[in-house]
Amino acid sequence: MLPSSLSYLQTLPPIPHPEQVSKAGIRRRTLRIACAGRGSKAARPATDDYHSTLRALNSKGRFPRKSLGQHYMLNSEINDHLAAAAGVGEGDLVLEIGPGTGSLTNVLLNSGAFVLAVEKDKHMATLVSERFSSTGKLKVLTEDIVKCHVRSHVSSLFESITEMDPETKKAKVVANIPFNISTDVIKLLLPMGDIFSEVVLLLQDETALRLAESSLRTSEYRPINIFVNFYSDPEYKFKVPRTNFFPQPNVDAAVVSFKLKQPKDYPEVSSRKSFFSMVNSAFNEKRKMLRKSLQHICTSIEIEEALRSISLLPTSRPEELTLDDFVKLHNLIVKE
User: Fold this and answer.
1) What backbone phi and psi angles, to 5 degrees, belong to 328?
2) CA separation for the pair 93, 83 (Å, rounded)
3) Where are the beta strands (DSSP E) in the chain?
4) Three-class SS of residue 142?
């Protein structure tokens, strides 16, 4: 049973102004939100905060569901910065994942964008549809994003928006996604450089750091780093303290921008499927040298010769290879 609104209002801690910190060579910027004083004019009407979020949930008799990883953003100015990170402007088409009560949707629509929102929770889908029913710029799909036919939905919406030129215009993704589906969402969206120009996601801070700044020779260097850099140019934007969410998660968040590469700009490999299969095989046995872990592709001697030809030691392990190294190695040892 959801407690009363009044009891909830006593539990939310104040939003602090954290210090900027550095980690893994990245300048981790934390947003400092200036609160309007008395008599000052609000930047935009109907902004979302803790009270409005709670009212919206109570209106549908809902409460955050842990199984869906639901943590609602309480600070509308962070949503402003999230949209600004993607450069959302008039006439853009934006895919939003998990709009919840519509706090980010509100910012996107006020920026002049057309929004395609994918919401798995049917109650939240109804709530956000009703909230913005008069705008004429929102389409809500009650679907699971990892099972959704994103490409067909975006293409269909492009065709229906007469103000846009589907031949030259590209969509953007701006979303505060559940942390537990971040890898699935990244794998789904990053290869779509033909329809999306940029993907801006609010992720768990640790994940954001690992994806934006892959470090060779560390345990944090994984196949997902190769994948991300194959399809995009990632950039860590800013940290978002956990106190900005309801309910408060156990970790901080951060915003990462993925500038998607055009298909013509992907690294040249004979087969993307075989390339990533080779990368995964290499990392499945990280402690082994590549001449051992990739023996199912060709002989150890051939692997050693290939490594020498790209100026690497024949005893190299996967965490010692960059994306470019893996591309070169693939093209030398994988015969299609």
Assistant:
1) -65, -45
2) 12
3) 21-23, 26-28, 72-73, 93-97, 114-118, 138-141, 171-176, 196-204, 232-240, 245-246, 253-260
4) coil
Backbone angles phi, psi at 85, to 5 degrees: -60, -30
Residue 123: which residues within 8 A CB-CB, separation 6 or more? 60, 62
Structure tokens at 324: 């470019």
> What single-letter amino acid sits at 257?
S
pLDDT tens for 298-322 read 999 999 999 999 999 999 999 999 9
Joined together, the tokens standing for residue 299 give: 């002989």
CA distance 133 to 105: 12
Please spell the DSSP secondary structure of 87-102, one letter per residue: T--TT-EEEEE--TTS
Asked if 169 and 194 count as a contact pair (C-beta separation under 8 A), the reply is no
Averaged pLDDT for residues 135-161: 93
Question: CA–CA separation, 285 vs 108, rounded Å?
Answer: 44
Look up residue 202 and give its two tokens.
Answer: 């609010």
Please report how the helices 223-231 and 205-212 are oriented relative to each other, as an axis angle in degrees rounded to 10. Answer: 70
Alpha-carbon distance values, 114 to 108, 164, 204 (Å):
8, 10, 27
**Structure pTM?**
0.81
Q: Give the three-state DSSP class for 301.
A: helix
**Residue 39 pLDDT exceeds 80:** no
Structure tokens that stand for 130 in this block: 């009703």
- Let me know if 309 is exposed, middle or buried by CB neighbors in 10 A (0-12, 13-18, 19+): exposed
Cβ–Cβ < 8 Å for 197, 260: yes
Q: What are 259's strand-pairing partners?
A: 198, 233
Question: In the chain, helix, strand, coil percent, each to 5?
Answer: 40, 15, 45
Q: Is pLDDT of 87 > 60?
A: yes
Question: What is the residue-wise DSSP string for 148-184?
Answer: S-HHHHHHHHHHH-TTS-TTT--EEEEEE--GGGHHH
Q: Which residues have CB under 8 Å from 285's CB, separation 6+?
A: 292, 293
73 burial type by CB count under 10 A (0-12 exposed, 13-18 middle, 19+ buried): buried
